[in-house]
Each structure stands twice: as structure tokens, then as C-alpha cells.
Amino acid sequence: MRTYNVVITDGIVIGGQEIYQKPYSERIALVDILCKTIRKESGAKWQEAISVKSLLFRLEHFNQLTSSLRVEYFKGHSTPRLAHCVKDQKMLVQGIIFVRHIKEPWNMELSTKLKKFYFFNCKTRSSQYEWPAEAAADFGYTRLSSLHWTWDPRIWNQVVQEAPVTDKLLDTFLARVNPNKLKNT
Questions:
Q1: Could you tell me the CA-to-CA distances from 30 to 11, 21, 52, 88 in Å, in that order?
Q2: Is the pLDDT score of 104 beyond 60?
């Protein structure tokens, strides 16, 4: 039996409640509850309704995402494809969305001395360790400031033709997408 994957990356309204003005982390927590309900109520067909919460990686932990990427064969595809593999599950990668959850002029920085995150306002040059409520990005800001990397099978197919299907194939692909990737490792 075929199962379907749905990945929900954000929310505007859930259960009649407007959530678009809530901070991103709160919206994702509510979306996660919705996905758990979909999985529970719909049976096996929508067993893989996934909130983005399980797929979120902070930028400083991006290596966790790249370490879960594998080259895999999928049914219906003649060439190997990029897959996100966790435990015994694999998902075909269609792209990556980089989401900014803090509004400008705020940035989140890491204190080198205390090894603790703090918030820095670029306009006023002030900093604080407590979350500034005015920095929370609503739905509109999150969507407008997000960056999308979309899977381009043409690049992948060209890499597959040039390199054998080995562990180095993924490195070759990442180098093609981002030439600085291999130079820095």
C-alpha cells in the first residue's frame, strides 16, 4: 500500500484559531499537534504526515542535516536521488527552506565568552540575553524573508553521469551546488 508524505512548514489558521501573528516556534508547535492528529485520525494512508518540527535544524547545526543525506535509489527513478535518511525511513529531498524567525534589526548571536545565545539589535547597538518580544517574526515576515533551495535534477543527473555511485557521489553533487563546500572541509 502506498503512503503519502506531507510536510507542513508553517501555519496561518489551525482549528479556526488565527496563529499567523504568533512566533515561529509557537506556530510550529501547533502544526506538530495538527500532524499528530492527522496521523492518528486518518489511519495508514496518511501515516507520514510530518510537521517541519522534526526536520528543523538551527543553522549552527546544519551539519546534522547534511550528515543525514544519502544517495539512494527510489522506486520509479532510474538514477539515484538525494534522500534525507533517519532511522529506517528515507525521504526524497525536494529542497531546503531557510527560515528567519527573528525580525530585523534583531540578530541572535553566540557569546564566545559565556557560550550562550544573546540578542543584538543592529539599529540601537544594544544586546540582551532575554528574548525580545518585538523580535518575533510573524507568518508574513517568515515567508517573505525565507530562502528556498530547490532540487534541480538536471545538476544531479549530470553529476551521476560524471561520477560512479559511491559515497563520494554526494560530495561531488554538493561541490557542484556549492563549490566552496569541499574546499572548507
A1: 8, 13, 11, 26
A2: yes
